[in-house]
Amino acid sequence: MNNYTRKIHEGQSMSELENVSQSSPLGEHCENISLPCLYSNISIENDTKSSQFRKSANALSWNVQHFALRFGLENLGFLTLTFKDHVLCVKEAQKRLNSLLSNVIKPRYTDYVGVLERQKSGRIHYHLLVNVGFDIKTGFDFDSVSKKDYSSASKNLRNEWSFWRKVAPKYRFGRTELMPVKSSTEAIGRYVGKYIGKHMESRNKEDRNARLVRYSKNARVCSTRFMFVTDGSAEWRAKVSVFAELVSARTGKPPTFETLREELGPRWAHNHREYILSLPVLS
Predict the structure, then answer these.
(1) Residues whose CB falls within 8 Å of the CB of residue 268, separated by 6 or more in sequence, listed in order
(2) What angle do the packed helices 185-201 and 48-71 form, to 10 degrees?
(3) Which side of the chain, N or C, has fewer Cβ within a 10 Å radius?
(4) Per-residue pLDDT averaged across 174-202, rounded?
């Protein structure tokens, strides 16, 4: 054990360190254990699920802002898709949406970002931001439309409405609504991102593995593989560094992530989280 690792464990006896395998498989079953990395979603946060969904919401917001900047707000449409029947099963909803995406949305709009929302009643519907490919916003009077006066809608937008009235029922969808984007680039990012939070408030058990967000091939620039800059995540990284030094001391190899993966396997975060959290950090 090097001087750095000894200093880390002031206050812990050498016997405790040598018997570390009692609380962690380190040393005794190195070939079967794994360590966390900076790309892991594991950190010292009180609610890791909440952290993950905050990441999803933030990534969605950033991707939508990029989407709007790339294609221009005037060329985007906010498409709401509801089902004619009372669809509660997420698998059924996804099946119908996949068919619509493959046969209609991808060929017609090419680029899109979509979000699943479950209403408080349990009923599922989808919100999509689509690249219509032409200006549908200029001259559109949002105030008049809110009062059921659609006279300001352009011919191209009216054609889109007509198209969806004919096509949606063929794919077992009900009311559809395609509207221009009223807000700014930043605001639409926040607006779409909020649907992650709304979904979590009314999600069911069967939604656990449901795909909440969908992107066309070129619509995403940010994933959820990042860590928030918080006290918890900073402490987690510090403790991982300590753990890496311990592994290095036992194996004689450099305390790098490559070494950790080679020696301990790919799932070290899951297997050693509690032990890593118990480690002290140098002040």
Answers:
(1) 33, 34, 35, 36, 260, 261
(2) 150
(3) C
(4) 74
